[in-house]
Amino acid sequence: MSVRRALIPLALALLVAECSDGRQPTAVTPTPAPHFLRWADAVTPRFTAIGAIPSSGGDGAIADGMQASSLVDGISLDRYTAAFWAVRGEERSVQINYLSSTGDTSFPFLTLTITDPVFVPDQGDLAPGDSVLVSVTIDPTDIKVSLEPTGLLFGDQAQLKISYGGAGGDLNGDGLVDGTDAEIETQLLGLWYREGGESSWERIPASQVVSDKSFISALLHFSQYAVSW
Question: What single string gives the DSSP state of each residue in 94-138?
């Protein structure tokens, strides 16, 4: 204890010396922005959805409930949205599939499964059997999605599976698919999230399936998610 007390004046003296010569104490380094994966197609990618409710706006933004329907027709480039009703105590899900610009490549891009929504911002707690409208909005440039309502909380965690196959293998965007991309995929790539536009992106726990080019994560609440490195 006496040694520890003796070190305190020394630390204070060093701090005063730093301030007196114009230097400031070292600041906390902010988390750098991640490198977002981009869709491989030169044109805006297309999608289909299964499990979404019919659109009420007539603009094709939300796919037909029981059939796979195009989400791209009539949608502005900054809004690709599918929605479904999540019910507390019932398993509900939506699957969004990716289509290449040529139409010859199709595979699951995202699957979101919810069984236990418990709290809705500005609405309050949900009783068993109550429902909340959930929407998934896809970014047309990066492999990134927004899940709403933001701040929706779950008892049993929601399950999100998201694929990065639409990047086409060029993960660093240099126009080549080579060993550098393989290293990024196996050592650096991850699932990231942020709470809102003013927040920093942070990496979250997720299981990667390289053979499937996907990440699976359990979610306690909704925000924005992206496959990045």
Answer: EEEEEE-TTS--EEEEEEEEES-EEEETTTEEPPTT-EEEEEEEE
